[in-house]
Amino acid sequence: MTLEWEQTIVEAQDPVALGRWWAQALGWVVVDDSPDEYEIRPEPDRLPGLLFVRAAQPKRSKSPLHLDFRPDDQAAEVARLLAHGARPADIGQGQDVTWIVLADPEDNEFCVLSSRRR
């Protein structure tokens, strides 16, 4: 059996606005810009993608699933994402961790991990 990871679904109050935010944050391309389904990918024919769909109700608690990103330079990426509209988020991670938790404009948490050592 073979499975290929096609995409991750992100429920959003405004799929287009949130999809655009993530496309800019990641430097990805838009492959579907429908009002209720907005899909982005690293490149047009490269998987997996992120598909933003209209949520049935507003987010009410910590997201059960979030994305982790491993940058070359953690401090630079966190600064760039904060300038782009991300916000610091507290999900109970404590002080002595090597990652930084941020939230996108609809409060979906994601982590910027420590930089890779070369």
From TrEMBL:
Record InterPro entries: Glyas_Bleomycin-R_OHBP_Dase (IPR029068), Glyoxalase_6 (IPR041581), VOC_core (IPR037523)
Superkingdom of origin: Bacteria
Pfam families: Glyoxalase_6
Boundaries of every VOC domain copy: 4-115
Listed PANTHER family: CONSERVED PROTEIN, HYPOTHETICAL FUSION PROTEIN
Name the UniProt record assigns to this protein: VOC family protein
